Amino acid sequence: MDYFIELFFGGLTRGSIYALIALGYTMVYGIIGLINFAHGEIYMIGAFTAFIVATVLSIYGFPALAIIIIAGLAAAVWSSSYGYTVEKVAYRPLRKAPRLAPLISAIGMSIFLQNYVLLAQTSDFLPFPALIPEFAFMEPVAHIVGSSDLVILVTTAVVMIGLTFLIKFTKIGKAMRATAQDKTMAVLVGINVDRVISATFIIGSALAAIGGLLIASHIGQINFYIGFIAGIKAFTAAVLGGIGSIPGAVLGSLVLGLTESFATGYVSSDYEDVFAFSLLVLILIFKPSGLLGKAETKKV
Amino acid sequence: MFPVKELKRSALISLWFAFLTFPIMVIKVNPIERTVDWRWDNMYFVAIGSFVISILSKVYLIRKERRSGRKKISRALTEPFMQRILREPRFLYPLSLAILVFAIAFPYFFSTYQTNIMTTALMYVVLGLGLNIVVGVAGLLDLGYVAFYAVGAYSYALLNMHFNMGFWTVLPIGGLFAAFLGVLLGFPVLRLRGDYLAIVTLGFGEIIRLILENWNDFSQGPSGIANISRPSFFGMEMSFDGGITYIYYLVVALVVFTIFVVNRLQNSRLGRAWLALREDEIACQAMGIDKTKTKLIAFSLGAFWAGLVGVIFAAKTTFVNPASFTFLESAIILSIVVLGGMGSIVGVIFGALILILMPEYLRALSEYRMLAFGGILVVMMVFKPDGIISNVRRSYRFKKHISHQTSDQS
Fold this sequence. Notes:
Strand order of the largest sheet of chain A: 1-2
CATH class of the largest domain in chain B: Mainly Alpha
Oligomer: heterodimer
Number of strands of chain B: 2
Strand content of chain B: under 5%
Distance between the termini of chain A: 55 Å
Number of domains of chain A: 1
Largest interface: A-B, 70 and 62 residues
Number of helices of chain B: 18
CATH architecture of the largest domain in chain B: Orthogonal Bundle
CATH topology of the largest domain in chain B: ABC transporter involved in vitamin B12 uptake, BtuC
Largest sheet of chain B: 2 strands, antiparallel
């Protein structure tokens, strides 16, 4: 039973990280209908920035709490800047282009950013400093649920609540929902669509950066290639839940995380990804628009 | 002259990029020895580089705007130069003949190394043309095309290893295996809309690769299968150089065959059904086209070409392992199709030659190769989103004199 609970929490942790990345995909898709392949790279850059800042600060002897806060902020700031710039450089000129052009541009951007980090930093795996301390009160259950699992779950929950609040009750959230529903109509009622799209990229990138920081300090090492796999998994999760839907992205991520965790624990870690993708194919066969996606009826 | 406002804007852009690349370009930490290396000179490079690039792109945009303002009217009437050549048989036939002669003479004038690279590029031409059927013509976005390529390569590798079957026997078998798999994948995913289809095919491609990587008893896992026999010519074994030239001719023949078939297909009933499907599924069904059958044929035909090329790939390298069939490969093939111009055969050929030959000749810049590749994809898409040679619809035009006659009569 302990083993089951351990796997369950492992799956939840994994799912929360996927959710933080998947939200970026799903928000961008909901608004401009683009699979942002560079999003995984944004997450990787967030993790790298956090790594660099945290290591520099720890060398100069800052206290642990200050390191976490500054590294987290730096990761969020720089990731958002990258997200904003990528959108401006690679996607904005292609708003009216054929549907596949932005996709290729995104793939190019992803390859570019990966190699940029590879060349500017290194191709080796780097040890990420353990930013999350071991809590004393977690001692009795530490063999099942680690402190970092707890921190990840709590942070993700807080971020999700904050995001829901932002989308439901603020002005920019309203503008985002309006743009997602109908871009032309949004322009007509006076919404600056370009600014809304930029805001979406910034928020999505900041979430990915938080995910990057958490997972890197959970696993303890990073590399320029981590963004690719995480990106594909998170995108899978977003599609699983119904792309364009925010609760769907969270649900899809949790389902994916749990499936992978149990598959690894009870079957074999070699086939972890096979299970993830098979689950995706199965769900899409029976529910072609994802778990929470709306079935789209097309009028003629 | 260049306005001051633009200079100011470029200066701001360069400041922004200096800020953006600050942590990754400037700071390099060594976590084990706990040292920090501040590389400030990188920051100057980034700032100056982005300043120059932003000015250049602005100049380009201004000039483009002026040009399009002047030529707007004449543009609409005359087709682009390339299109005119392609339509006119007078130019087209001698041109294709010249290219064919050049392709045949190629191994005599260039080294074995060059021939080998050219073979690879031509293999990608066939892959691009195969994917073009699925993505360009039928409009089904397939991100896992490399799976079929892998199936072809592994069917030759495995059949050769276990049953000692020859290249020529396996060539059709590999193609058919891949086509069969295409149908198998096609059935469940046909109900899915565009981007769901994309992610399912991506997942499918990854599943195939992961199975090849982890099922050691079947595929020998990540270490791959080595010592696959090269193709023979009516039982004759060939020297190493001769073998490379032979495979080159084989691929040239395959390219010619593929172009012929794809060209005939595009103008056939089936090809027009695909186009209709791409444009509007509902209208297409209303015209009485069997949606399922048409989509399945597109999938399996595309897969068939990938299977053929896969067999040739295994025979060429005499070694296969799962690392050759990653998502990046699918992305490159898709880029060939989109970059060249979707649905256009000549465009795909150009796209493949550029995208495959460019990294080979950029080898001088070895480590910056993939960086440049990614950058060029973005730049190409931003400045030419329709691809190098966009496919022009066949259209009928009313002749002027007919309308004159009718107006005279009335």
